[in-house]
Amino acid sequence: MNEKDAIKRLREGDKTAFKYLFELFYDRLVAYILTYTNDKMLAEDIVQQVFLNLWNGRAKLNEIKNPKSYLYTMVYNLFIDSRKHEKKVNKLLDNIYEKALRERIKEDKSLIDLRIKKMNAIIETLPPKCREILKMNKVQGFKYKEIAEILGISIKTVENQMGLAYKKVRKAFENPSLILFLIKSRNLLKFN
């Protein structure tokens, strides 16, 4: 049996003709498409799909003058189709990833906003002098020595007040229920 006879007999449903073509071309086609894919499993999947398509479409086969070229073309075309499909899937996955990332950024912004609200609520509960020193340092950018000169107090007093402020902020962030209480209290004070 030769390739052309095998195609004619395949058209009639001859399984031995199919087996003949499979055994003759399978390894060659895998090696050929492997040069494009660099992935043996993918190359084997493509070639197996081509033979499956060949068997399922056998009744539609017209006279094929060069079965070898026909099979190589089928394998190459299926490879190209799989690449297009892969690109579509990757694009879809990229879009999903980008959307998830945008959502995450929005969530992170919400968390930052919440942390700022928490921080402001905590700062508002500090004693007036401590709050003033903290704001002068962190908001206005004054150094401890400058704050001491402006307020007419010692640098040690500024350091102690800043230490007190840091301690209360840390403690509040360690205790979430305290933060919620402070935020609610602050909001109640604003509305009353």
From TrEMBL:
Pfam families, alphabetized: Sigma70_r2, Sigma70_r4_2
Keywords annotated in UniProt: Sigma factor, Transcription, Transcription regulation
Bilayer-crossing regions: none
Family: Belongs to the sigma-70 factor family. ECF subfamily.
Annotated InterPro entries: RNA_pol_sigma-70-like, RNA_pol_sigma-70_dom, RNA_pol_sigma70_bacteroid, RNA_pol_sigma70_r2, RNA_pol_sigma70_r4_t2, RNA_pol_sigma_r2, RNA_pol_sigma_r3/r4-like, WH-like_DNA-bd_sf
Matching CDD domains: Sigma70_r4
Protein name, entry field: RNA polymerase sigma-70 factor
NCBIfam families, per database record: Sig70_bacteroi1, sigma70-ECF
UniProt-listed SUPFAM superfamilies: Sigma2 domain of RNA polymerase sigma factors (SSF88946), Sigma3 and sigma4 domains of RNA polymerase sigma factors (SSF88659)
Species for this entry: Flavivirga amylovorans
Chain ranges of the RNA polymerase sigma factor 70 region 4 type domain: 121-168
Ranges of residues in domain RNA polymerase sigma-70 region: 21-87
